[in-house]
Write a structure and sequence with these properties.
Strand order of the largest sheet: 3-4-5
Structural class: mainly alpha
Distance between the termini: 31 Å
Shape: globular
Helix content: 40-55%
Radius of gyration: 20 Å
Number of helices: 13
Strand content: under 5%
Length: about 350
């Protein structure tokens, strides 16, 4: 998923679930920042204080993607949560990301139960990102595995007219992806869904491909998968607010069935990321998803808002680290990663 979903859709679904605007902004910022938190150098603030950031993503051509330990620490817990399908016949199959898997449900419960305190929303945002990605990244593994390889000529969009501007746009993006060397890298180092470019990240797209390992043709329906994901996110946010009413808006929640049609229409919008973002913003402004306040119409994601430099600036400007969202995100990311790697996955028998 991309910015339209991880930030704007998450914000809208949280508000529809009954969350206060301020709380929903923190949640949405944390959700999208999982893709943008790349800092990995120790932040030295003075002789007594330092912050160790946790990168929750890497750029596609980052050398770190080649390192197996980085794949386990970054791609597996934050982007390709293993499905641990009980019908799997091999360890590799157990590592395949699956929609709304038992492990995905467990991280949602973790976010609800650990929602107290200043980093509760940041943790929920991280979990929202990972959980949402199970609905777009399913079928792939966050490790360097042959499983992720496809027969390139079989990758195609199935619900776009070949003469349409959107089809030309999608194919141009695919060509750009390959020209930049990312496609070649995906063949040499098949981690995640690099072999199918951004096809899983486009809400409106239906597509298909044939795996290189002999499995039959796989057909994907992003609109359906994304709609299921939005329903489950709305449900997750309702659970969180029931447990932590201090984040509830006086206006209350809007039932999923009342917004389902509007969400489906938004997911069907064909076009660039910017076009899709504008569609979400217009729906919010027109009060099609929840009772809108003035602040709801001022949404704008800033990837540098919680960066290492901002943490440093906040500290030297007198803001306690325990009150700055950037450092709270770091704390929540470490907490989440430790729980998944050291508690959940060993507890489900994925490793000792």
């Amino acid at each position: 998923m991309q910015l339209d979903m991880h930030y704007y859709a998450v914000y809208a679904l949280a508000r529809a679930a009954g969350m206060k605007p301020k709380s929903a902004r923190i949640l949405a910022q944390a959700s999208q920042f999982v893709d943008d938190a790349l800092d990995d150098k120790m932040i030295y603030l003075d002789s007594d204080v330092a912050v160790l950031p946790l990168p929750t993503s890497h750029k596609p051509l980052d050398y770190a993607n080649k390192i197996a330990a980085e794949q386990w620490k970054i791609w597996i817990p934050f982007h390709f949560l293993p499905g641990n399908d009980p019908d799997s016949t091999t360890f590799t199959e157990r590592l395949v990301c699956r929609k709304n898997s038992p492990l995905a449900k467990k991280i949602c419960t973790f976010a609800v139960e650990e929602g107290n305190g200043r980093q509760g929303l940041h943790l929920l945002g991280i979990v929202s990102h990972v959980f949402a990605d199970t609905f777009s990244h399913h079928g792939f593994i966050g490790l360097n595995r042959e499983w992720n390889k496809i027969i390139n000529k079989t990758l195609r969009a199935t619900n776009l007219e070949k003469e349409s501007s959107v089809y030309r746009y999608v194919m141009a993006k695919l060509d750009e992806f390959r020209a930049r060397g990312i496609g070649t890298m995906a063949e040499i180092l098949p981690v995640g869904h690099g072999s199918v470019a951004t096809f899983p990240d486009r809400p409106y797209l239906k597509w298909e491909y044939k795996p290189e390992d002999g499995r039959p043709l796989i057909q994907r329906d992003n609109p359906k998968d994304y709609l299921d994901g939005c329903r489950e996110l709305h449900k997750l946010f309702r659970r969180f607010l029931a447990r932590h009413p201090e984040h509830q808006s006086p206006a209350g929640a809007v039932a999923w069935q009342k917004i389902r049609g509007t969400v489906a229409q938004l997911l069907a919008v064909q076009g660039s990321k910017e076009v899709r973002i504008e569609a979400w913003k217009k729906a919010i402004a027109k009060k099609e998803l929840f009772p809108t306040k003035r602040s709801d119409n001022q949404l704008s994601y800033n990837p540098g808002m919680w960066s290492a430099n901002r943490i440093r600036e906040a500290f030297f400007n007198g803001t306690p680290l325990g009150r700055f969202d950037g450092s709270l995100f770091v704390q929540a990311a470490w907490k989440y990663q430790n729980h998944v790697i050291h508690d959940l996955m060993p507890g489900m028998g994925l490793f000792l």
